Amino acid sequence: MKILYLSSEVQGLLKTGGLADVSRALPAELVNKGHDIRIVMPCYRSLLEKDFPVVLPTLIVPMTPTENEYCTVRVTEISGVTVYLLEHHKYFSRHGVYDDGVTGYIDNGQRFAFLSKAGLELAKAIGFQPDILHTSDWQTGLAAYYLRAHYGYTDYFAKTASVHTVHNGSYQGQTSGALWYQLGLTEDLMRPEMLEDYGQINLLKAGIRFADKVNAVSPGYRDELLDIPTSHGLNQMYYSRGEDFVGLLNGCDYGEWNPETDPHIAQNYSADDLAGKAACKMALQKELGLTVSDQIPMFANISRLTSQKGYDQLIPALQRIARDGVQIVLLGSGDPHYAHQLEELAHQHPETVRFIYGYSEPLSHKIEAAADYYLMPSVFEPCGLNQIYSLRYGAVPIVRRTGGLAGTVVPLNDDESNLQQATGLHVISTHPDELTQLIERAIWIWYHSKASFLALQQNGMAARFTWDQAANDYLALYQSALDARRTT
Ligand code: ADP
Ligand code: GLC
Known about the structure:
CATH architecture of the largest domain: 3-Layer(aba) Sandwich
CATH topology of the largest domain: Rossmann fold
CATH superfamily of the largest domain: Glycogen Phosphorylase B
CATH class of the largest domain: Alpha Beta
Number of strands: 18
Radius of gyration: 23 Å
Helix content: 25-40%
Distance between the termini: 20 Å
Bound molecules: adenosine-5'-diphosphate, alpha-D-glucopyranose
Number of domains: 2
């Protein structure tokens, strides 16, 4: 198949979260399987500095019947996949990606409408006639509408079907309702069952409403999106898609995340020989100025600092368990409100807690390799990748039973009767007391039930969520989108 893959971020080029990991690994796996896939993304300022070769000096993008935008197209390759970068200085050459660090850019509607339309124009300009247009989240949702309303009527795109993936339904790209004409929309879309959202335009709705098939990044999250309290307000939209809306679990890039070969960590290790893991823990303790000993359990967390990740529960729980005999290492960037609370926690417990504000891929690998337990009590989690990396690294995940966390971690029973299968521990509520009790249990297991802890580690290290499988699921979805398109 020929697949046009539009994404606002791709790991290795620009990453703010798991969308980037998926936008790199899924296309790479599809290329491995013999498909022709091209990625289109913005040429952000940091990419402009790399001076990738120009393939098209000028691409003309008609945004409205009377106005064009223009960009230069550069090209690079990542994991064997061709990536086209749209160089549009006014829209993309700025400090942030989606926001200035605090608030979203006021022209995000225009910026990502441009990406959505330019992707289609570029395909035509370079003679790449896609079978499938694959889009993700609010940033490229409009492309599904443009294909349906503007391009699908041309011979070139007459057979192209679309798939829209919801990685995170809480970000919806709300944009001023006054912009409908500028975004190439018609006024009849300003209805709640279309793109209207309390007077604004909701870009995610465009993907949900107009793609031939829609998927959430785990079966559990799909079910949550159909349920009013967990749908981020869009349950009617999802519900209206009936069987066209499915859940497909992400994979993990085990080439990147493998403790047996990881070049970032102090010593490689495997499930059969965990001595290297103890060495990794001691190396990190040394690096961070903590007591160096493999006789202390280490809890870790690496994340965007946002309420989604459960910091309102995690911080109070950590305040209660931060004491001698436990070490806590946190890496994250984002909401200054949480950063401040975590700095305070580290300040109050200089012997046991380290908080590193920032974004560092090498450090994230070192932390996964060092940790005994990985904390991820998200309020909601569409799929989650860090718990999957943690399983592979023997950092036993402590999660909340939601979305992809519920689908990837097998929780240990109270009576440990499922010790042969269990890979982690879970809480059900979002109450800090429940999380505190669970962490207390984790500490107890680590000190007093070494065999149970080892079983959890080794079961998790043996679990696999491969992109081979996930890519096959996407191929089946692409095929069903093509079949649906043929019959409409
Ligand atoms: P989300 O996409 O909601 O942020 P995921 O678990 O799907 O959550 O993916 C997050 C990705 O971003 C993981 O690869 C994780 O390691 C990475 N990440 C998040 N914050 C940081 C950070 N501060 N430093 C390094 N990597 C980070
Ligand atoms: C989103 C979700 C996360 C998911 C990632 C990749 O950012 O928050 O749960 O793993 O997308 O699909």
